[in-house]
């Protein structure tokens, strides 16, 4: 059974026009495709930002370690 035959079966069962079913299917396809494009774009953006985020996190960690050491020296009076 071909796709068009399946559409015709659904159209007969649901008493709906073939063009309306195809219109709904196309709208759903476009909606899902847009979601997929956005997901792929976000994934690419995260991958591109990963090295930058890692560098920033490392710098912040080093600064935090230094701040803790300074605070401990101040508290201990050294």
From TrEMBL:
One of its GO terms (biological process) is regulation of DNA-templated transcription. InterPro entries: Arc_rbn_hlx_hlx. This is Antitoxin. It comes from Ferroacidibacillus organovorans.
């Amino acid at each position: 059974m071909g796709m068009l035959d399946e559409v015709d079966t659904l159209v007969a069962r649901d008493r709906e026009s073939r063009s309306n079913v195809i219109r709904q299917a196309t709208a759903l396809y476009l909606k899902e495709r847009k979601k997929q494009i956005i997901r792929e774009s976000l994934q690419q953006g995260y991958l591109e930002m990963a090295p930058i985020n890692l560098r920033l996190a490392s710098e912040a960690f080093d600064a935090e370690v230094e701040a803790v050491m300074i605070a401990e020296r101040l508290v201990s009076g050294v």
